[in-house]
Write a structure and sequence with these properties.
The chain is an all-alpha fold and about 140 residues long. About 75% of the residues lie in helices and about 0% in strands.
Length: about 140
């Protein structure tokens, strides 16, 4: 059981690492002008949909890592539960809306902290993640 828990944790870390790498490259490519509405912290629908696709890819990779390390299929079940629980907690956490308009030049970390996604995104994201892990963990 400990091996399955460790596999789920490593799978989650792999998901986070893949997301960080992909979004870092995307941020360097498009910058804040295409990642946000003008002078706003709100992300366009296209960015939100693209984030879901990239999240699916990262979850698939996390599922693959988890399946390779896990003792049996319970490792993937643990990872899916982690993705759903943490995603629901994030969706239920109130979002602090920045008081001032978004400056033209913001760092990726500032953008991550201040981004306002549509409400549907926050609820769909953990489901997409769970599906990605499930597909990635299939042997």
């Amino acid at each position: 059981m400990l091996r399955n828990i460790l596999a789920a944790i490593v799978g989650y870390i792999a998901m986070a690492a893949v997301l960080f790498a992909i979004f870092s490259l995307l941020w360097l490519t498009v910058g804040p002008s295409r990642a946000f509405h003008p002078a706003s912290w709100e992300v366009p629908v296209g960015w939100a949909l693209g984030s879901l696709v990239l999240g699916l890819v990262a979850a698939y990779i996390g599922g693959r890592v988890c399946a390779r390390m896990g003792h049996d299929a319970r490792a993937a079940t643990i990872l899916i539960a982690m993705v759903i629980v943490l995603g629901v907690v994030r969706a239920l956490t109130p979002v602090e809306i920045p008081a001032e308009p978004r400056p033209d030049d913001v760092s990726m970390m500032e953008a991550t902290a201040g981004a306002l996604h549509p409400a549907w995104f926050n609820w769909l994201n953990p489901l997409i993640g769970a599906v990605g892990v499930w597909f990635g963990s299939r042997k």
